[in-house]
Design goal:
294 residues, globular
Length: 294
């Protein structure tokens, strides 16, 4: 592989890995607190991807405005999912298996709804930029990938500051250790969990918008969070930092392998590598083992 192509693929991989990192953190933040795998996150990604398309196509074609609306909508959808699907069974003390079943059901419901109403057609986002690439010497860098990298980096930095420097961030970290104990100290745990789902929804909204803008929107776009889930597992369930690192590494590895061996063989290589990694280190890069999880 030529030096220029190598640098370009690494840049593209880091940009794509930033989106995988957003997915991993959105997936992991719920696991941190409630200790179940929230597959309904893919439904948030799908809904916001379609929402971003329809707003930017038919209402107002402005990148920042439509991204902001889609992001906030993702947070709202995340909260509604928590209140309607997960809170009732949580208050009844249902087992974690039921949370998992509900999350998968919600994801499939969204997917089948869009397949039934909009069909299998692909919906491309409008072009926001007249010039789609930047030439840096011999390198040609996509503006879309550049935006993905900048937005992912800023969002992850902001989330880090929220978790470390604010009262709600401290409450979220306390709840991730033991979801019941903070309530004994006067913390409104229902509100903390709603905030966690809002943050996950915001990340899902950004992910849906960026994926829709980069590729196109179809009923199965939510399934693209599989890479984010893989990144969360590689990074270690419960480790948000590990999820970010794993997302970036996964993006770079995927980009380089696609350039060398093609997309089909790349997926085989990546999934095989994940098997080997988890056999060697089941808890992932920075995770810890849980006795009960779903």
């Amino acid at each position: 592989m030529e030096y220029q192509i190598l640098l370009q693929q690494i840049f593209n991989g880091i940009s794509l890995g930033g989106v995988y990192a957003l997915e991993a953190v959105g997936f992991g933040i719920i696991f941190n607190i409630l200790k179940f795998s929230n597959f309904s996150h893919s439904g948030v990604v799908a809904i916001t991807a379609y929402l971003g398309f329809f707003i930017s196509k038919y209402v107002y074609t402005n990148f920042l405005v439509t991204l902001t609306i889609t992001t906030l909508a993702g947070g709202f959808i995340g909260v509604m999912i928590e209140k309607l699907i997960f809170r009732p069974i949580r208050l009844k003390g249902a087992p974690l298996t039921l949370f998992l079943v509900n999350s998968i059901t919600a994801a499939m419901l969204v997917q089948q709804f869009f397949a039934a109403t909009l069909g299998d057609d692909y919906y491309p986002y409008p072009v926001f930029m007249k010039q789609t690439s930047i030439n840096l010497g011999t390198l040609t860098i996509s503006k879309t990938y550049t935006l993905m990298l900048i937005i992912s980096g800023l969002i992850l930095l902001l989330l880090t500051l929220v978790l470390k420097r604010t009262k709600i961030g401290i409450a979220l970290r306390a709840a991730s250790t033991d979801v019941r104990t903070p309530s004994l100290m006067g913390v409104n745990i229902d509100f903390v969990i709603s905030v966690a789902f809002f943050i996950a929804g915001v990340l899902g909204g950004i992910t849906g918008y960026l994926l829709g803008m980069t590729y196109s929107v179809d009923p199965f776009i939510g399934s693209m969070i599989l890479k984010g889930i893989i990144a969360a597992i590689i990074g270690g369930m419960g480790s948000l930092g590990g999820g970010v690192i794993a997302g970036l590494l996964l993006g770079v590895a995927e980009s380089l392998l696609i350039a060398e061996i093609g997309s089909s063989l790349t997926q085989i290589a990546i999934y095989s590598g994940i098997f080997v990694l988890l056999l060697i280190r089941p808890e992932g890069i920075g995770g810890k083992r849980y006795l009960i999880k779903a």
